[in-house]
Amino acid sequence: MAGEPLSNFDLVDPNVPYYAVKEAVLPFNRFPGVDTLLGPEMRSTGEVMGLDKTFSRAFLKSQMGAGVDLPTEGNVFVSIKDSDKGDMILEAARNVSNLGLKIVATRGTAEYLASNGIMSDVVNKVYEGRPNIVDMMKDGGIQLVFNTTEGVQSIDDSRGIRSVALYDRIPYYTTAAGCRAAARAMKGRTESEIEVHPLQDFIV
Predict the structure, then answer these.
(1) Which residues neighbour 85 within 8 Å (Cβ) at sequence distance 6 or greater?
(2) Angle between helical axes of 55-65 and 176-189 (0-180°, round to 10)
(3) φ, ψ for residue 179, nearest 5 deg
(4) Separation CA 51–CA 23 (nearest Å)
(5) Pairing label, strands 75-79, 46-52
(6) How far apart are CA 174 and CA 115, in angstroms?
(7) Distances (CA, A) of 100 to 7, 64, 71, 172
(8) Residue 42: predicted pLDDT
(9) Cβ pair 80, 113 in contact under 8 A
(10) What predicted TM-score, i.e. pTM, was given to this entire model?
(11) Which candidate, 7, 9, 21, 31, places its Cα nearest to that of 54?
(12) Between residues 33 and 53, which one has the greater pLDDT?
């Protein structure tokens, strides 16, 4: 745009020895009735950044900074749309299972996970009758949610899940990539103590 090639500028080598993850702070609880499913509107009131030598721990720090408390025990609810059933979700499910958390899934997702050697307990969707996943969340039986949806009906059906997750402060991820990143962060947390360094330590 300036009419000069980048080679004419004394730029810092982009291959830095750390990862930086930026996370938006989304205070949905300040907007009653607003669905937490992300859309094109900007609802962020700020941003935080996590820095570390690995992506997983940088992502973990970004979640901590945004007030998201990833669990160390309990139950993880998994309900995934067909187009997301692949390596990312399988990795996420295996990671949380290996960390000792129990997986609770809708029937279709439970069957998919079982076909890939990952065991889970089946829970009803909201329209399938009670007790269902929303009942379980309200009773404190879910500590983390991995839920990707598509289609008007599916998105509407999962609105109750998102509402309870918001008000009970249950971490909720709505993309396959987000689910994998959260699971990697939980695994990364077990590798060593989380440390804090001044920003100046990362200047190269």
Answers:
(1) 109, 112
(2) 100
(3) -60, -45
(4) 11
(5) unpaired
(6) 23
(7) 50, 21, 11, 19
(8) 55
(9) no
(10) 0.83
(11) 21
(12) 53
